[in-house]
Amino acid sequence: MQHHSPGDRPQVAPPPPPSAIRELFDRVMPAFRAPTRSSEAETIVRELFGLAGIEIDGTNPGDITVHDPRFYERTVRDASVGFGESYMDGWWESDALDVTIMKIMKANLKQKIQGSWRLKALTVKAVLMNLQAKTRSGASVEAHYDIGNDLYTRMLDERMVYTCGYWKDAKTLQEAQDAKLDLVARKLGLKPGMRVLDLGCGWGGMASWAAEKYGCSVLGVTLSKDQVALGNEMWGPKGKKLDVELRLCDYRDVHGTFDRVYSIGMMEHVGPKNYRDMMKVIDRNLVDDGVALVHTIVNNRSLRHGTPWIEKYIFPNAVAPSMSQLGRAMEDLFVPEDIHNIGPDYDPTLMAWWDNFDRTYGEISHRYDRRFYLMWKFYLLAAAGACRARDGQLYQVVMTKIGQTQPDCRMI
Fold first, then answer.
1. Which helix (H) or strand (E) holds 73?
2. Which of 96, 141, 217, 380 has its C-alpha lying 20 to 30 A from 237's C-alpha?
3. What is the CATH architecture assignment of 133-401?
4. pLDDT tens digits, one per residue of 309-342
């Protein structure tokens, strides 16, 4: 070991003066600062919204008014979650929220706001886990469809149809939903005495139509207790006495023989890891010369999960398929006989739901507080704006087993 005498000790430089430390700090730290300080975040949001033709505190349709400046940082930091939550908290508003979202979608701003940890976390989760596995599906359905029939009876039409209507010749929501139900019935070629399976039946709107108008016997399955209870009350012995049974059951547990099988608005809850299983369920329950139909929202590209705000507040673990994902799931099982896109019809459907909800909210405000009101408003109007921007589609796909005669199913 080497020793030093006191005179040989290494010389230590004196510390720099405080002014030099401050100068170095001011020179280096900007490179490490997150661009989410209020002034920087406001600049970012104003520039991004400007690209979409949205002005802060402007007067044109779709412009927004900011009531709390924390909105800017929250939006930059948390993307869709921050944008939606800050609306629910009253930090900003728009006199035409559907137009605001349409402009954002058309300008593709969601691709320009990067860095959301929630988005990254959802992607990792979707890759590693089956988010729509049987053990998880019940809780996901309950979180949306079992929040209260008092809400849905006011928002929906008389048959409680919670999917896109068909507005070709319709002027009211009821006309649009009746037209959609009959469109499905004619595409399937329903006939009296047919046994029909409804996967994801909701409150039984289509099941009741098939039984009442076409003389079919229908089994519907759903994981929503509230839907089963009200649907059986409406269509069963205590109601219209139709040949309809709604059953609390996972679609994967259905085994039977049916002349027709359809799914309206359920594929969005099936999940990418289960699309093929869904098609196999349809295949094993459908007679060889039967016809099947899938009515589903379709994304313009293949995704593993939904938008983080929608995932958190509206539809946990829900994600719509793309056409390529549907095609791969059908491969070697079915021939797509007809593909009909009625995506633009979702816009007036959602706006009608919003009008119904807004008009009757006072009757249920004691159960659904102001924050819920703003959440539901954001959900319905944002979805309408996204549809108007053609961010997603709505396809009805008619299918037959390979080798069968093509049915008369082009009912556009």
1. helix 70-88
2. 141
3. 3-Layer(aba) Sandwich (3.40)
4. 998 899 888 899 999 999 999 999 999 999 999 9
